[in-house]
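Please check the following.

. . .
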Amino acid sequence: MKDFYISDAPRHENQVITSYFCVTSKQVKPRRNGGENYIALTLGDRSGHLDAKMWDNVPDYVDTFEQDDFVKVKGLINRYNGRMQLTVHMIRKLHDQEVDFGDFLPKTSSDIDQLWQMLQGFVASIKNDHLRNLLNVFIADPEIATAYRTAPAAKTLHHAYIGGLLEHVVSLMRSCDLLTPNYPHVNRDVVMAGIFFHDLGKIHELTYQRSFGYSTEGQLLGHIVLVLEMLQKKLQTIPDFPNELKRLLEHLIVSHHGQYEFGSPKLPMTPEALMLHYLDDLDSKLEAMRAQIARDTDSESEWTSYNTSLQRPVLKMEKYLGGEKAANSEQPEVSAPEDSGQPLKSSEQQSAVSAQPESSPQQLSLAAQLEKKASDHRPTASTQPATAAAKN
């Protein structure tokens, strides 16, 4: 097991370290002032990524390793433009038997077996026999089941870790289960099936054996086309599957990105497709924010660095509130609903939502602190006209 992880870098600033990494990117670039080229690397392990540069003795090392190789690196940890980086002194390619693969790919902290059981429970709760049986055909395929439990949900943007796809899907199913009772005209079974399928093509689009990347078919087709192919293949084994349901599922899959510019060939045109899109977008962005805050441990600022996918920095709530816990970190235990065995009728879904619990002391404390900070920055009577004029 490695004794240095990338997340440890801030504690080793201005120190020389030796450790194992996976080369997630490699570029040979010219120096701005001319002369010898340098090597620009991104090194990775299960805790994150680190920019690295090799300035000296480049001809001796440049052809000894490639992207996706495991390497042993000796170098100096330093800070550049507010971010940690590594100046490489020596680098050597490693053989696979020299490394523990578990050191290099990040993995969900959740129990994968428990997540899989929850997914199966939600599938069992689907009342429409055709949809439930179709999903069980996929679950019963050992190749698909293994990949579903293993794959990340994305290369970098959200849930980018082993088990991330399954965690993302179960999270969406939980949200669907909470939200659909408030919208009785939305067909819960169709949304659940759409959630199950929407990112399933990523088990073939992404590679996740050594580092996270894209397969050739993923680059050429993308996960939307790939899951449509998977769906068509399985439906050939179920000749009595209603064509209308097939079209609805296909529409949820092709429209779940929500906008043409985000890769959807169609906009969501049913309430179920619209709900899937917004649940997916919300879950992915909230996870991206969580991960951005978790990664940004080497800065004393109340703000993270700029996140290009979110197009904004993120406020570190606990640091902003002076170390006060922003929210209760314990996650409530959520169980999949039991199957009632009733046929699909969206009008028969419950329309009442569960009563909300009273605010906890932590939540009240958070609200009070936010109100105080807001009042501290409210303009006085004398400054309000100037503020209004500035807005105009």
About this structure: DSSP finds 14 helices and seven strands in the chain.
